[in-house]
Amino acid sequence: MIELLPPALILLVGALLIGPTRGRLRTTIVLAAPLLTLLAIWQVPDGVVFTLDFLQYRIEPLEGSAVRRLFATIFALMAFAGGLYAYRQAKWHELAAAYAYASGAIGVSFAGDLISLFLFWELMALFSTVVVWCGGTPAARAAGIRYAIMHLLGGVILKVGIEGVMIHTGSIELQAMRADSFDHWMILIGILINAAAPPVSAWLSDAYPESSPTGSVFLSAFTTKTAVLALILLFPGEPVLIGIGLFMVMYGIIYALLENDIRRILAFSIVNQVGFMVCAVGIGTEMAINGAAAHAFAHIIYKALLFMSAGVVVYRTGCNRCTEVGGLFRTMPLTAVCGIVGALAISGFPLTSGFTTKTMISQAAADESLVIVYFLLAAASAGVFLHAGIKFPWFVFFQRDSGLRPKDAPWNMAVAMVFFAVLCVVFGVAPQLLYAYLPYPVEYQAYTAGKVVFYLQLLLFSGLAFFLLLPLMRRTETISLDTDWLWRVAGLRLATWLHDVLAAAGARITATARSAGDALGRRGRHWFGSETTDGRRQHGVFARAWPIGTTALWIAVLLTAYVFFYYLD
Amino acid sequence: MSDRRDTNTNPPDDAWLARPSTIRLLWWVFAVLLALTVAAQGLFKVKGYFGADGWFAFGAVYGFLSCLAMVLVAKGLGYVLKRKQDYYREADDD
Asked: Do B71 and A472 touch (CB under 8 A)?
């Protein structure tokens, strides 16, 4: 029975049932819906499963392939762990929105054509906005509106591209393309906006940290990674992505180093990690695409784990900033350990999932003799350890004693964290468990002695750099300007200025019109007459009684003129 | 929900990890680990793809220097980009 249902639909129905149910039934739905979805995902065979006719187009809402199942699997796993993490603490509407959001991501994973891709894309945009709003603060409301505007704009750009392709080729097939025409560029830009690529990366670090401690766990997983999948399906080997990916990698590191908000550090590091994947898609070889897919899979797990760990800290202490916390390892040992496992995994330490997936991307760059890319990725790997691997656990759990003695995680949050921490290690120790499900056959040895030594040197000496340079990285109670300054401040100022200028011009025009009107009125009254205030009529020039002599003179003049012209003829 | 923000502020305790003696010990352990990872390159050859990355202790030097560079760049950009944390709220109030 379950294999007949599209996986996204199962999770969407689950999301719809969260609202009307209560108590144990709701808990059962929250935990069972992602697992049933997972079961359905594994039943999806390769190729198009069913089609619908819409207008003159053949829609393929369910198409299977290895990479699609891989992404859908991690999305469903993420929904399960996120549901477990959140169900006792989050509001029901946040859970429902998060599940609908996840079902959008799974829908995108299996979308066989551009129209269904777009529909599920917008489903994600809608419900992720609701998840941001569930932060419940005025800041969350404002950030949610900015988030929605950015994603609706991205959706419109994507739609322009899709319609262009539909008109110019008549086909809505999802197939690999290059950024070689206006339509394709629009599609690429629409996808890249969701991947938090420059110049609009700021939407991510703006919105995610404003959501609730549970909401940010869901938000960290879906939007950017569906964008990576869309890039894998539509733009594998597109060279422009290499540069964009490298920029994102460096941008994430620099901004995370400057940041004080705990979850914003992690948000910047999402951009950094997605940069690795975008760069890999740009390289485009089988090894690179495998690397991008594997890294996305591993990334969702350790990034969610990091957000879970940070979420527990925010939930228990109510503090969002590094300057407010510190020394929490004393009373939150489990949260600290899970945070550290996530931090080691994101840094790509040997024996964690980050190592077995990220090194595939570096290997792909080396295989293609991309010297600069290879060395920049190596530098970035060191930088990841710096900004997320040490900075996050150090400032939150160690650093100094803030005096806070919060309780450790509630049991459901603890179980979810341990589950993902174990997965980080499992995929690090036994990478073949993941390699078996990658889009192309894997002939890659993650663990060679030389590679392990190289990365240990790289990472441990970045650790040394961190502790030696700590005085340079003192946390300050600041934020960092990003490109969103252009519309949040410069745009606002421009709009205010334009408003002032137009208002002044308008006032002037009104005044001129009024004085012109007054003058006209005076002339009119002069010629045509008017009613005076005491009710008497004042006759105008035309209504005046003229003296008879003047009239006789004018008639004489007219007759003379008539006679004159008559004889002239 | 009742246990939310359950924080009581005790006087600073003497956690094992926070003691100066432990921190000194950890620095020593860390230094030994650093030395070992470099020394390990004598035993296991690091296969360089582009020559330089196979040099002795290349990973160590490269890791350290790139972190130094990134921290300095961040610090420099910080002078230009950093604003008080209520910057946007003030801007919104204008």
From this structure: yes
- Looking at the partner chain, which of A371, A404, A492 has a beta carbon nearest the beta carbon of B91? A492
Q: Give pTM, 2 decimals.
A: 0.88
Cβ-contact A446, A431 below 8 angstroms = yes
- Cβ–Cβ below 8 Å for A260 and B85: yes
Q: Do A217 and A304 contact (CB within 8 A), yes or no?
A: yes
Q: Nearest CA to CA, how far is A108 from chain B (Å)?
A: 35
The alpha carbon of residue A68 is apart from the nearest alpha carbon of chain B, in Å, by 32
Mutation target to probe the B interface, by most B beta carbons within 10 A, among A398, A460, A466 is A460
- Taking contacts as CB-CB distances below 8 angstroms, the residues of chain A near B12 are 401, 403
Judge contact between A267 and A348, C-beta under 8 A.
no
Neighbours of A47 (CB within 10 A): 11
In the three-class reduction of DSSP (H, G, I as helix; E, B as strand; rest coil), residue A173 is classed as strand
pLDDT per residue rounded down to tens, chain A (569 residues): 455 678 999 999 999 999 999 999 999 999 999 999 999 999 999 999 888 888 888 899 999 999 999 999 999 999 999 999 999 999 999 999 999 999 999 999 999 999 999 999 999 999 999 999 999 999 999 999 999 999 999 999 999 999 999 999 988 989 899 999 999 999 999 999 999 999 999 999 999 999 999 999 999 999 999 999 999 999 999 999 999 999 999 999 999 999 999 999 999 999 999 999 999 999 999 999 999 999 999 999 999 999 999 999 999 999 999 889 988 999 999 999 999 999 999 999 999 999 999 999 999 999 999 999 999 999 999 999 988 889 899 999 988 888 889 999 999 999 999 999 999 999 999 999 999 999 999 989 989 999 999 999 999 999 999 999 988 888 888 889 998 899 889 998 999 999 999 999 999 999 999 999 999 988 988 888 877 767 777 777 777 777 788 889 999 999 999 999 998 87
Does the distance separating the beta carbons of B6 and A316 come in below 8 Å? yes
Q: Is the Cβ–Cβ distance between A249 and A183 less than 8 Å?
A: no
The complex's ipTM works out to 0.84
Contact A479 B57 (CB under 8 A): no
Residue A489 to residues A166, A345, A474, A541: CA-CA distances in angstroms?
A: 38, 37, 27, 61
Based on its alpha-carbon atoms, the radius of gyration of chain A, rounded to whole angstroms, reads: 33
